Known about the structure:
With about 300 residues, the chain is an alpha+beta fold.
Amino acid sequence: MANKNFDECTSFLINNGLYVGRICRLENVLKTIINKHGYIKNVSASLAETTALGVLLANALKFEGLFTLQLQGNGPVSTLVVDITSNGQIRACANYDLERIERAFALRKNEGEIEPTPHLLGTGTLAFTIDDGKSNYHQGVVELQGKTLEECALRYFRKSEQIETMLKLFIDIPEDEDGVYKAGGIILQRVPEFGGKEVDVKDLPELRREAEVLMNSLTKEELFDENLSLNEILYRLYHANQVAVTKTNHYDFACRCSREKLLKTLRGFKEEELNSMLDENSKITAKCGFCSENYEFTISEILEKLN
Ligand SMILES: [Zn+2]
């Protein structure tokens, strides 16, 4: 049964805007994404974690259009991609080399142990882009360095944006093959234009320490407790810090692929290239990497509008 208290991201302020924050947790949307792909457990776990990070980052930005978080590396997992639209539609996918993963896993000390995301990706980058459809393209990139995805993301804020950031990610990995994944997190940032101007500079270190200690007191059990709403969790953490909720966004799975889009891509190929793609039924089949939908085309259909 769908859990009503999940698939949300709530934005908030504490200490009269000294820190802005977001808290999110995902379940149903992950279930749909993971069921569509059938990846191995560790890859599903990394994709779930990356999706939660994507939601926390996308919610920091005012944008209309598409936010994409992409991790790329030279490891057994070559890419993890999460797409989030400004109206709350998410899709996500991974690319990996199963043989390489199995070889790497054979060296593990503890059978079944989940490897952290950066370890699966190896040397690479964490990048995000915002595409508002009007060619306004904003991109942030940082090298994937850190033991955890959390550390990699924090490095981005330190290096590229120089925004004081605190971040905690959580993931709940099911024991069973068909169990449900949960992922979520909390992020706090000091954005001077939001507030905190009235705060005495000498009080800043203590206020930061307090905000961080309280953030770190959040447990996985608490975040994933379906009987608690995100607002109740925030109140528990920051009731003494004038916590104020500013908005809540809801998320669903949706893929933006279509026959028309694929046709357009295929029309970019030469006729002889298209002929080399034909299968034994004289069709060209294309599978959407995000939702696993299969599309079939005939050559004449592809060439139709060209002539
Ligand atoms: Zn699709």
